[in-house]
Amino acid sequence: MKKWLAILLVAVTLLLAACGSDKKTSGSSSEKDEKEGGTIKVGVLASLSGALESYGKQTKQGFELGLDYATNGKMEVAGKKIEVVWEDTETKPEVAVQKATKLLEDDGVDFLVGSSSSGDTLAVLPLAEEYEKIMIVEPAVADSITGAEFNPFIFRTARNSSQDAYAAAAAIAKKGTKIATFAPDYSFGWDGVKAFKAAAEKLGAEVVLEEYADPAATDFTSNLQKVVKAKPEYLFVVWAGTNSPWNQIADLKLTEKGIKISTGAPDIAALQLMKPLVGMEGFSVYYHTLPKNKVNDWLVEEHKKRFNNEVPDLFTPGGFSSAVSIVEALKKSDGNADGNTLIPLMEGMSFETPKGKMTFRKEDHQALQPMYSIKLEEQKGVDYPVPVLIRELTPDETAPPIQNKK
Asked: Which residues form the Leucine-binding protein domain (predicted)?
């Protein structure tokens, strides 16, 4: 009996030693692999088809160029290769959630980026927190993303709606300036006017009329006549869609009645619908000739080389900036992609982009960034009104209010 017990003890001892040896060997191998490198996987959600396909295309081109620029063409950071997985949300929130879940579970991505639609983005935000992965929001603009729906894993390189409003106000509002607003009669218009009014009144301007129109209407005559009657110095227009009011504004000759028109300069395709607004003063998020810095010079030159002499469009620099922010964050963490590790490193982080310096505000992770006061002018050889710089609006001027519950 004693003999068998001794044999059993020897066997158990050998087994434990073997297990311990295997564990040690496995750990050493893992540590060796970690030191030698590895892969950082980035999952990007974008509207690569459907109504917002052009936005998704711009983001994709910008993101790829941004990675190239930030890594000096090596596609690696801190000794780790960067791999990008693209998914099309089709601008459907339910699809965005499915694709994001696939990226997180099947592809095992370290970062999420996206999306072209605020609806898609809002649907995905909880997943970033659940999986504890950093999500860079680009180009979705809804205030609630870094406001009521904020979670600490969300960082946004895109500007938000309030930044647009503050830029619009900074471009035209002064003490005593009388302004009327015109917008579609639904949440997009209401929110846009509310934010603009707050920013304009803060600068001492007076909003003398808020006029809302049926977003499906084709005749805005009665609405615009109310604007004329209010006698503002400026008419600030918040609009999106093909049934725009620009032609009727021109037909009613509001400018000849002493009313200056102001709005945000959109992407190049939409600028082609704004020919009646030559001479208008407003704001721009980006146009390729507005920023004066080396990063933008590189972007414009490389974009032309790679994409049939096309210039970068409205959402291209945002994709670029989101890529740069990831690379800069990984430099700070020495390649550690753990979300909880990255959050304190990214809060307050500044990085250079085609728009100049961006900084993730600590309180809500919204990137503060330059915007542009512009005037639309005709330019020889260009078939749309070109945004020409009046002055650059500083990140402080266009900083939106902090709206989260952090």
From this structure: 39-377
State the first-to-last Cα distance of the chain, in angstroms, to the nearest integer: 68
**Please, which pLDDT band fits residue 242 given cuts at 50, 70 and 90?**
low
Task: Give the orientation angle of helix 316-332 with respect to helix 339-346, to 10 degrees.
Answer: 110
CB neighbours (10 Å) of residue 15? Answer: 10
CATH topology of domain 163-284: Rossmann fold (3.40.50)
Q: Are 92 and 115 in contact (CB under 8 A)?
A: no
Gap between the Cα atoms of 270 and 263, Å rounded? 12
Name the percent of the chain in helix, strand, coil, to the closest 5. Answer: 45, 20, 35
Judging by DSSP bridges, how do beta strands 356-360 and 367-368 pair with one another? antiparallel
**The residue type at 135:** M
Kindly indicate whether the domain formed by 39-159+290-369 is annotated with CATH number 3.40.50.2300: yes
Strand intervals (E) in 89-193: 111-113, 134-137, 154-156, 178-184
* Mean pLDDT on 32-57: 83
287 within 8 A of 58, measured Cβ to Cβ: no
| pLDDT tens column, 87-126 | 999 999 999 999 999 999 999 999 999 999 889 999 999 9
Question: pLDDT > 90: what percent of the chain?
Answer: 76
Domain limits of the chain?
Answer: 39-159+290-369, 163-284
Q: What is the pLDDT of residue 276?
A: 87
> Given this chain, do its domains 39-159+290-369 and 163-284 carry the same CATH topology?
yes
pLDDT score of 23: 34
Q: Are 228 and 195 in contact (CB under 8 A)?
A: no
Which residues, in sequence order, are CB contacts of 316 under 8 Å at separation 6+? 58, 59, 61, 62, 65, 286, 299, 303, 354
The encoded tokens of residue 84 equal: 């990008």
Q: pLDDT digit string (tens) for 1-18?
A: 434 434 333 343 333 333
